[in-house]
Fold:
Amino acid sequence: MLFSRYLLPVMKETPADAQIVSHQLMLRAGLVRQTAAGIYAWLPLGLRVLNRIADLVRREQDRAGAIELLMPTIQSADLWRQSGRYDAYGPEMLRFQDRGGREMLYGPTNEEMITSIFRDCVRSYRDLPRTLYHIQWKFRDEVRPRFGVMRGREFLMKDAYSFDLDAEGGRASYDAQFTAYLRTFAALGLRAVPVRAPTGPIGGDLSHEFHILADTGESEVFYDSALDAVDLADADAPAMLRGLYAMEAEEHAKVENCPVPPERLASRRGIEVGHIFFFGTKYSHAMGLQVQAKDGTQVTPLMGSYGVGVSRLVGAIIEASHDAGGIVWPDSVAPFDVGLINLRPDDALCATAAAEAEARLEAAGLSVLHDDRDARGGEKFATMDLIGLPWQIIIGPKAAAAGLVELKRRATGERHEVSLDDAMARLKGPRAA
Ligand code: 5CA
Structure:
C-alpha cells in the first residue's frame, strides 16, 4: 500500500480532548475519528487492527467449539418484554419506533434474541450442548462515554451464549470459554487476569471479568500477589487461577474474612476486556425455552453468556504497549507487518529499490505500508514510529547503492544494515513462531 494513496491523517500535536494515552495515540495515528459523543468512525488503519483482533477472537472461539452466527443490531421491544428486561434495563438502552409505531431498540446485548432463536430451532436433548457466538456492534447510551473507544456508546463485542442440559454441562461450557479467553488474550500479546465479578443487569451468580492491569483502568481489582507469577499461557493456568484470590472491588467489598494475608493482597486498577457469566435458567425459563430430555420429560436449558470488548481491546492494547514515540503494536494485531520508508522518492535508485522491496515482501505474504511521500526523513521516521508497525525497512541513497536496506525493530529500536534477503529472513522468523 502506498502511503501517498492511503487515507492516514496523522497528527503531530496531542489532541486536548483526549485524556489517556491510548485515546491520544488513536487520534494522532489516524485510527479513528469521533463522529458524535462515544461514536467513532474506524479509519482504514484502525479498521485493519479491529479486523485482526476480531479474527483472533474468532479463531479461539472456533477452537473452543463455539459456532458463529450473526444477529442484527436492531431488536424489537416485544422480545425484551418476554424476559422482563425491557423496563428494567433503563436509560442505557437506545429506544425508538419504526414508521409503523412499533417499538424497537439498538441491542446492548443479545441474551433475549439468542434464546428466542434457540427456542425456535431446537426441540431435543440431542441438540445440546451448543455455544453460539457473533461479533456485532452494540449500543449503550452510557452516562459518561470517555477514553475514546474504551468506553464508547457504540462498540464492537464478541458475545457467546451457551445452552446445556444440566449444571455440570453448563459449568463445562463456562470453563471452555474461560480457557478460550486466556488463549485469546495471550495471542493478542496481553496479560489479562480473571477476577470474580458482580453480575449486574445480565444476572446469575457465577461471573469472571478479565482485566488488563493498568493505571488508567476504570475498575479496581484485589488479588493474591501470587497471581503475578502465573504464566497465563500455561495449560495449567485456568486451574491455578481458580485457586487464587482475585476479585473485582465490588465483590471484594462483600468478602468478610479475606483469605489472603494483608502483605500478599495486591490492589491495582484494571481495564475490563472480557466478562463471562453463568446464569442458569434466568432467560430460558422466562422465555419458555424447553427441550425434550432423553426420558421424554421437558427440561429448561441452562445458559451462560461470554463477552469480549473487541473495539475496547484496540485501546487496551495501546495502553499496554506504547512508548514516547507512539504505538508499539504486537506482531499479532499490527495493521501492517512492515513500514517501508523511502527517504528519497525523487532518486531513481531508491525508487526502484523501494518498489522491489515492496513487491517481494508482499509476495512473501507480508503486508507493507510504503511511505513514498515527498516529505522530510525526520517526518517519515516520526510517523512510522507513531503508527507503530513492528518492522521498518528504510531505503536511502547510500545503502541502496550498496544493495542494502536498514531494518529496524520498532519495539527495541534495534537497527541493522542488511541485504533485503537477510531482512526478509529476520522478518519471517518471529511471525511464523
Ligand atoms: N451479555 C454479556 C456477555 S456477552 C455482556 O454484555 N457483558 S458486558 O456487559 O460485560 O460486556 C462485555 C464486554 O464488552 C465488557 O467486558 C467490555 O470489554 C465491553 N464493553 C462493555 N461496555 C462497553 C463500552 N461502553 N465501550 C466499549 N466496550 C464495552
Observations:
- Residues 3-323 form a domain with the BirA Bifunctional Protein; domain 2 fold (CATH 3.30.930.10).
- The radius of gyration is 24 Å.
- The longest helix spans residues 167-187.
